Amino acid sequence: MAPTVAQPPGAAQGFTPELARRDVPVLHRTVNGHPLIWLDNGATTQKPRQVIETLAAFYASANSNIHRGAHTMAREATEMYEAGRAAVARFLGAPSPESIVFVRGTTEAINLVAQSWGRAGLGPGDDILVPVLEHHANIVPWQRVAQETRARVVPVPLRPDGGIDQDAYADLLSMRTRLVVISHASNVLGTVPPVREMIALAHRYRALVLVDGAQAVAHFPVDVTDLDADFYTFSGHKIYGPTGIGALYAKPEILQTMAPWQSGGNMIESVSFGRTTYAPVPHRFEAGTGHIAGVTGLTSALDWLTAFDRNAVADYETRLTAYAQEALATVPGLELLGPAAGRIGVLTFTLPGHSATEIADRLDRDGIAVRAGHHCAQPALAHYGLESAARASLALYNTREEVDRLVASLLELQAG
């Protein structure tokens, strides 16, 4: 009997962090003798039991490869896989499941677009506009494809508060601009750019826009149709789902023009030594055996998250982020990077006399997990003259009490 993916209990229910915490087993463990405080959500989120149980149930009773299988379990696994595609489409407000491609995560999605659309769509003299705040995964693939096609990667500068300089962005756009790439929320500054307005402006120049939603989708609702995004990507593990699974949305008319990137099984219609034909979209972009269990886990994660009132979740996280900013301001000398308004709960900071690694190590002794380093966003840190910083990133299951413990530990570190 195939496992059923956990479904939301009808209409969205009210939200409290306690409701969320009740479902997440790892939050109830201890680290170094202290209750775990997980403040590394920008790197990966912890998983609710519903996701864990879905993965276990798939492998225990439904494990099969998908598509073309004539037996019962193959049909059941295929149905779950394609139901997951439909669930992602609904979650993103996409026009149809056929506009969703399953990938390993945001990085693979961006590389797919760079290699499939970019190689054919870019040429000498074309511009790719890339804000300085971008994650390396939204910089390096464009540098590589620009080298191959003799296009240019043009950085868009930041304001001192960590926001994208919109005047500079408008000035850099031209009829040479073929593509703009934007993070919907920065993984190092928490900045949430005015993506809808930036897309509309880019479209005036007939440029396409790819939005990296890895840090956004867990924090607020996203509607790709309303945004008018040409491409939108996210990773499952940053929205309470498994690692190794993510999704790429592309406008159907664009996806139809793109050639396959990787080749092999599953993405073909027929093969002979004289001629090979490819499967229709989106399957032509899913070579080999996909992360089938991961899709079921991702579907469960989306069900879990959307069972809560998303507006209530967003409001809670906004208030928690404001509280954390105020609390961190009580630590003498602590500098919070990128004080732009409307940020998500990403709090990257420095503390005089202490390296980022030293800060993270000291907090870990108290059971507090934060990230230290360049956060795969070296140009953004360089904007502040830094090579590394500590980062505490919040999620819906974090609490004020956990923020208070973070601040207390930082004060102890500072006191020596």
Automatic annotation (TrEMBL):
> Which terms does the record give in the GO molecular function aspect?
cysteine desulfurase activity; pyridoxal phosphate binding
Q: Which InterPro entries match?
A: Aminotrans_V_dom, Cys_dSase_SufS, PyrdxlP-dep_Trfase, PyrdxlP-dep_Trfase_major, PyrdxlP-dep_Trfase_small
Which cofactors does this gene product need?
A: pyridoxal 5'-phosphate
The protein's superkingdom reads Bacteria
Domain Aminotransferase class V: start-end pairs: 37-406
Provide the catalytic activity annotation.
(sulfur carrier)-H + L-cysteine = (sulfur carrier)-SH + L-alanine
Per the record, the GO terms for biological process are: cysteine metabolic process
Q: What class of enzyme is it?
A: transferase
- Its Enzyme Commission number(s) read 2.8.1.7
Key words, A-Z:
Pyridoxal phosphate, Transferase
Q: Which CDD domains match?
A: SufS_like
Family in the record: Belongs to the class-V pyridoxal-phosphate-dependent aminotransferase family. Csd subfamily.
Question: What PANTHER family does the entry give?
Answer: CYSTEINE DESULFURASE, CYSTEINE DESULFURASE 1, CHLOROPLASTIC
- Protein name as it appears in the record: cysteine desulfurase
What organism does the UniProt record list as the source?
Streptomyces filipinensis
Q: What is the lineage of its organism?
A: Bacteria, Bacillati, Actinomycetota, Actinomycetes, Kitasatosporales
